[in-house]
Amino acid sequence: MEIASTTPDELADRVTNSVVEQLRHLIQESSNPILVDSDEMARLASISRPTLDRLRSAQVVPSVLVGRRRLYRPDAVVAALEAQAAGGADHV
Question: Who is most buried in 10, 12, 52, 80, counting CB within 10 A?
């Protein structure tokens, strides 16, 4: 991959795909489906909490509300990010 000939969007897509692939591997190692809070999901995805909130508000990533807590299934978030990257959706 030559960075000089790569557009910013192509680079962003490649980085996203790389992060998603790394997350997929980590999630598949876990045999139990888990729910994590916003801070942990942002950490797992290597994104900021505000970015995660924007993605959720834009209905790019799924979440569940349990009482007052917003929780995420990491495997579902990874699948949603992959679908967004594959579809060439605008970056949020």
Answer: 52
In the chain, what are the domain boundaries?
A: 7-87
Does pTM surpass 0.85?
Answer: no
Tell me: the pLDDT tens digits for 62-91? 999 999 999 999 989 989 988 988 886 555
Distance CA 72, CA 9 (A): 27
Q: Is 51 helix (H, G, I), strand (E, B) or coil?
A: helix
- Compute the distance between CA of residue 28 and CA of residue 37 in angstroms, rounded to an integer: 19
In whole angstroms, what is the distance from residue 44 CA to residue 89 CA? Answer: 22
The dihedral through the CA atoms of 27, 30, 35, 41 has a sign that is negative
